[in-house]
Amino acid sequence: MRYLFDTCTLLWFANGESEKLSLAALSLINTSGNEAVVSVVSFWELAMKTSVGKLSFPGGSVSILSTLCVREGIQIQPLTVECIQQFLLLPPAHPDPFDRLLAAISILGNETTKPLVVLSPDTSFDAYAPWGVTRVW
To answer: Over the stretch 13-33, which tens digit does the pLDDT of each residue have?
Structure first.
């Protein structure tokens, strides 16, 4: 199974805060053969929140986090015009534009699979189930 990290889930995983992850999330992360994907949208969200003082994360920088992703075998997916177009087609059921972008990315999937399962505690993603978004937590 291929899955897309929500930003908070990625941060908890990167910081070793496994107690914040659900058993289903831990199982998905730890199951051999599953493939993890993180969007550059999550790096953008972390950078924005850090720059305005809303977030300070151990490890300090987005480049350190991206290095961790590469080391852990997590695919870093770019933001494409198709993702932005899909974002525009979605209703604003989720108030956070970063999470709506992640929903759009989930719908489109990546170059090898469609769609990507979203790994997130945020139940707002469930509003996009009619468009093909599946959330695991």
So the answer is: 988 899 999 999 999 999 989
